[in-house]
Amino acid sequence: VELVESGGGLVQYGGSLRLSCTVSGFTSDDYAVGWFREAPGKGREGVSCISVIDGKTYYAEAMKGRFTISRDGAKNTVYLQMNNLKPGDTAVYYCNHKTAWGQGTQVTVSS
Question: Residue 45 pairs with which residues in a beta bridge?
């Protein structure tokens, strides 16, 4: 299983970004992908996850209403739409499936 993130960057307070996680190595759509983030000096925290086969989603409380996770099965891609970004959202964002992690993509929100 391989996961590759993209879409990070520098954005101003209140701005938006859409992260992508392209996956490969799965033999079916019956799997889940999660997004995590790690800010400087802090541990890795869960952001959101989605079941690719049925689209069921989960969000950490702090992200509800601002972040939306979705998937495109035909493109083998999971997205994380992030709106109303705050400086506290600055972190490296990783996608994950069980023990497999992507390389991460940096999101920086300026105040």
Answer: 37
Q: What confidence tens digit (pLDDT) does each residue in 63-82 have?
A: 999 999 999 988 999 999 99
E-strand spans in the chain? 2-6, 9-12, 17-24, 32-38, 44-51, 57-59, 67-72, 77-82, 91-97, 100-101, 105-110
> What is the rounded average pLDDT of the residues 12-27?
95
d(CA 79, CA 20): 5
Q: Which two tokens stand for residue 107?
A: 């999101």
What tokens does 37 get?
């983030």
